[in-house]
Every structure is written in structure tokens, then in C-alpha cells.
Sequence to fold (254 residues):
Amino acid sequence: INKAKEILNYKEPNKKERYQQDLSREQFLTNMFQYFKNGVSNSKPAKEYLQSRNLDNKKIEIGYNGGQFHHGTRKDETLINQCLEYGLLIDKGNKGRTGELAYNIFGKWSVVFALKNKENKVVSLYFRSTLDKENAKHFYLKNRAGLYPNYPKPTTKKLILTESIIDCASLLQIDEVIKKALDTELVEVLACYGTNGLNEEIQNAIKELKQLEEIIFCFDTDDAGHTATANYSEMLKAEYPNLKITTLELPNKD
Fold:
């Protein structure tokens, strides 16, 4: 009942008042993702990183976190509190050189993707660092929820599972392949969160696909990808014995 009330009472955020009190998590993160999307065109590092990954922000929704969202004209107590609540800012517990409170910025210098719930509302964000540090590449907001790019349509007959969000985004860009499939064969693409990332929310979403005929794994063709594909295929075959499970062999490892 409470969920139904929330959906019925949902209102699109006023873009002229981006940071308001009493915003729901979905409304606030929608606003922030729009800000991050606007930031791509003004950032040379973001453009260079997207080009290096063959990602086109004109075809898919991508943002960039330059770490400036709580400065200048955007500096506001309501914004700061909301960012602290949802994890975009982390209180360092000390003051900077100006005497003001200092914060760590979550996902700074990262490209940003939105995770969405069943109602297609933004409920979490994924950050992929453009710095390519070996052990600091992937960041999810606390209390992660939602799927990328969205929940599959109930009429889905074929579901492509990728190993990562960027893999999924890459497939979504291939117009001549994916758009034709989406339009004619009721195919959906869904990202896992790494080789161990076919989580409970994704599994529950699969259960809802009553017309599903085939799951196609599109994981990296390295040892980790092969192992994950084999393990998940066995798990899914045990639960859905009539479901066809196939694998897309990529021409390279990643």
C-alpha cells in the first residue's frame, strides 16, 4: 500500500529548483544524474575516457562526476545533507583550510550510470573511475538497488546478460544489431555487476519474465568469465529446465 501511495504521489522534480527539501531518493538521484549528464560536455577527461571505451553519450545516458556538485552557486545546506544521506559525500570529520567542513567526494572523476527500479525511476548510481587505478575502478552508492539499463519488459523472450554495466552500454549502442532485435524479437539486455554479480534482484527480475525462452551470456572470455558463465548456466538450468541457455563467444577477451 505504501509503495502504491509513493508511486501515485510521485511528481517530476522542478528543474528550476534542483535541490529541494523532502525529495525522495528517486527524485534526488534523478536530479543528480541529470547534473552529471550535463557535466560530460564540459569535461575533457570525460570525453577522452568515453572515446577510449567507444561510448557515445549521444546514444546512451552517461554522466560525469567532476566533484564540483557541492561548490559555488550549488553550495546549499539541503544539498549537502542529501548528498551525505545518500552517500555522494562522506564526512571526513574535520575542517579544510578555509575553516569549513571537509568532505570526501564519492566517485570523483568517474563516469556515471543510473540504475533503475521497476517503475523506471533512478534508485542508485554506478561510478566507473576514469583514472584506471588497478584497485579503485568501480563504485556503487551505499544501499545499492536497481538494474541497468532498466527492468526487462514482461514480454521479453530473449535476455542477454553482460558481465558489466559498460559491456551492456556498449551493446546498446550497436544500432543495426540491438535496435532490430529489440523491435522484432523482444530481446532485452541486462548488466550483471561483475562475474559474481548476478544478484538476487536480477534473479527475481528473471522470474517475472513468463514468456522468456532464452538467456544469452555475454561475459568476458577469460578464465573468470568462463567460470562465471558455467556456474550461472548450471544454476539457471536447475531452476528453469525448459529455458535455453547459450553463450556469446567474443572475438577478444574483453
